Amino acid sequence: MRRLVIVGTVGVVLAGCGGGDVRQELVDGLQSDAGLTADQATCVADGVYASFDAETINRLAAAETQGDIPAAELETFTSIVFGCSF
């Protein structure tokens, strides 16, 4: 269940980012909306930016449900999340 919250949070946070430090906005959103620690949120954000190009991040941001994310991207994202000590 927590993974679903994190997937949704990444989309919402990225969609709401307009300029500024988008990575920090993602970290802040993961902490406030998904209840992650600062270290966990930073780990997820670092993994997202290391694993996905801008087009893919935009696609993640536009996803309204987990079903809107292509399977390979969701698998990569899931690996990032679980790799951050959840």
Topology:
Layout: H1 2-16, H2 22-34, H3 38-51, H4 54-62, H5 71-82
Brief summary of the model shown:
The protein is mainly alpha-helical. About 75% of the residues lie in helices and about 0% in strands. The chain has helices at about 1-15, 20-35, 40-50, 55-60, 70-80.
What does the model show?
The chain is mainly α and 86 residues long. The chain has one domain (2-82). Helices cover 73% and strands 0% of the residues. It has 5 helices and no strands. Helix 1 (2-16) packs across helix 4 (54-62) and helix 3 (38-51) packs antiparallel against helix 5 (71-82). The N and C termini lie close together (12 Å).
- What count of helical segments does DSSP give? 5
The strand count comes to 0
The total tally of domains equals 1
How would you spell out the order of helices and strands? HHHHH
Mean pLDDT: 78
How many strands, which pairing sense, and closed or not: the largest β-sheet? none
Helical percentage: over 70%
SS-derived structural category: mainly alpha
Beta-strand residue percentage = under 5%
Rg (CA only): 11 Å
Query: Per the principal axes of the C-alpha atoms, what is the gross shape?
Result: globular
* Poorly predicted tracts of residues: none
Termini separation? 12 Å
